[in-house]
Specification:
Largest sheet: 8 strands, antiparallel
CATH topology: Jelly Rolls
CATH superfamily: q2cbj1_9rhob like domain
Number of domains: 1
Bound molecules: 2-oxoglutaric acid
CATH class: Mainly Beta
Distance between the termini: 28 Å
Number of helices: 4
Length: 279
């Protein structure tokens, strides 16, 4: 089980720069997909410390998220460091290296009405910088109607910082206390925005800037949707802890210094470096 040698084209780079998101087909192979599905079963049965679960709300379907599993789960660890997703982030961010921040498992069971609210990632996280991105890999074929992701093209260049929202009621309540601009009501004025939705096949990746506004509808389909998102910190990133940023890594957990590049190899290990020959 290793890395696919999916090569990024000029078109991938251009789309990522222009739109703040790009689809990379066949980013990971079947063995990773199978193991992501096993991971989903495992976490649904025994949620981790940072899990969020709409099941507590008692509605139909289930939006379940879990994260920060890479230190305890060998599969997630291997996925992060061996599947090749770090290279996709590093090359698209045009960095010398990328450091890993955290993994995020996102499951929507069939007939789950819960959308993932429109949001930017950066206001949730204790970092600032333009070279920060996620690689969202789907383990299932999924259309937008089945809750694949939608993005506002070009929103990574809006120079806005929107206050975060919790994905599930009672989950990520810390996020609600964070400062930022009020996100416009995108859903009720969709025609005013340049929205791109991506139907994906199992193993495809969506790579997107932490500044790009994105979300996903509920899962109107009859298949479980499973995705694993990994978060990557590039060369211009600085550690920027705030009282209400994501509590999974706080100042107490890291030697990173506020306002400086987070050169902490334990908490934010290097996942990919540009080979010397192409530097
Ligand atoms: O999978 C989803 O619905 C949301 C994913 C997301 O927002 C992310 O990976 O940043």
């Amino acid at each position: 089980m290793g890395e696919l040698t999916t090569q990024l084209s000029e078109a991938h780079h251009a789309a990522f720069q222009r739109d703040g998101v790009v689809k990379v087909e066949r980013a990971v192979g079947q063995e990773w997909i199978d193991r992501m599905m096993e991971l989903a079963d495992r976490q649904l049965a025994a949620p981790g410390r940072w899990a969020g679960d709409s099941a507590a709300e008692g509605g139909p379907g289930r939006l379940f998220t879990d994260r920060y599993l890479w230190q305890s789960d060998p599969l997630v660890h291997d996925f992060v460091f061996q599947s090749g997703v770090a290279r996709l982030a590093g090359e698209l961010l045009e960095c010398e290296r990328v450091r890993f921040y955290f993994d995020h498992l996102l499951i929507k069971e069939p007939h789950t009405p819960n959308p993932t609210p429109w949001h930017q990632d950066i206001p949730y996280w204790p970092f600032l910088g333009r070279q920060i991105a996620s690689v969202w890999v789907s383990a299932t074929d999924v259309s937008v109607q089945e809750s694949s992701l939608e993005f506002i093209r070009g929103s990574h260049r809006w120079d806005r910082y929107f206050a975060p929202k919790a994905f599930t009621k009672g989950g990520s309540t810390w996020a609600e206390q964070n400062a930022g601009d009020e996100l416009p009501d995108i859903e009720s004025s969709r025609h005013s925005y340049d929205i791109a939705g991506f139907d994906v096949k199992a193993g495809d990746a969506l790579v997107f800037s932490a500044w790009t506004v994105h979300g996903s509808p509920g899962n109107a389909g009859s298949r479980r949707r499973v995705a694993l998102s990994t978060r990557w910190i590039g060369d211009d990133a600085v550690w920027h802890p705030r009282p209400a940023s994501d509590p999974s890594v706080t100042q107490a957990d890291t030697s990173a210094i506020p306002g400086q590049y987070p050169a902490d190899d334990q908490r934010f290990p290097i996942g990919w470096q540009r080979p010397a020959s192409v530097r």
